[in-house]
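Lab manual, section 2.4: Encoding a predicted structure.

Procedure: take the sequence of the chain (60 residues), apply the prediction step described in section 2.3, and record the output as structure tokens. A sample record is shown.
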Amino acid sequence: MTPHIVLDGAISYIDFIPSHINHNASEYGNISPLLEVPINIQGEVNANAVTMSVGGRVYF
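Recorded output:
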């Protein structure tokens, strides 16, 4: 670039540890506060991801 403008970049890899999800919750709708809706979330997380970022710096 120039002495006054610098570009930075990065890339990373993330590997999540496999884990189980078991979560019970309740949601109260907008219709009535007495109306309870049960939410049961069950599953497994087994994922990985690649993240990329680009940034710049400007010097005066």
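Check your result against the sample. The two ends are 15 Å apart (CA to CA).
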